[in-house]
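User: Hey, quick favor. My workstation is busy. Could you predict this chain's structure for me?
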Amino acid sequence: MVKEQILGSALISPSVKLLTLPEVVAIDQIQALRDLPTGGYAIFAVESISSGMQGFFNRTQGTPVRSTSATEPIPYRQPFAAAASRYTALKQEWSFLLANNQLRMSESELKVLQSRADELAQALSKLAANPSTESLATTKRLLRGFQSQFQSSMRLHSAENSYQVQTWQNRLESLDMLLRYGERMELNRR
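Assistant: No problem, here it is.
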């Protein structure tokens, strides 16, 4: 991977070329890309998508929405809104695991983590709705604090599910990348 020091706040999107890949390999590569700390991924040779690949996308991303209203913010156009949306999805994943008793952590750590998670969600929503230098600084500070708390709170869960926890940490890192990109593209243009 390219070092962050060289790229700064540039958004890099890895890709998968479907043209000559067997379906199983393409699915493995797409799943691996989803787990990395990236802003997204691109798929080339889309005309090569088979019904099996289309089924995979429907199961993992939902059925395609054919409407004129955008449902998901596009990261390079709305980085702050994309960060808020992705964080909401991450919180929903944690909530699902909590509801099904599949997330291992102490009750006290859970309370602290939930409080910080909610605080970060509010800051991301505020930043997406009304971008400003002050709200960006607050959001970045809250994200750093949450990442630190997250790492210590996930100690127990990580013992049995280290890949899952690493994937979540990568997704939190991708939020930071979107915030830095948004700072450069939205706030520094003003």
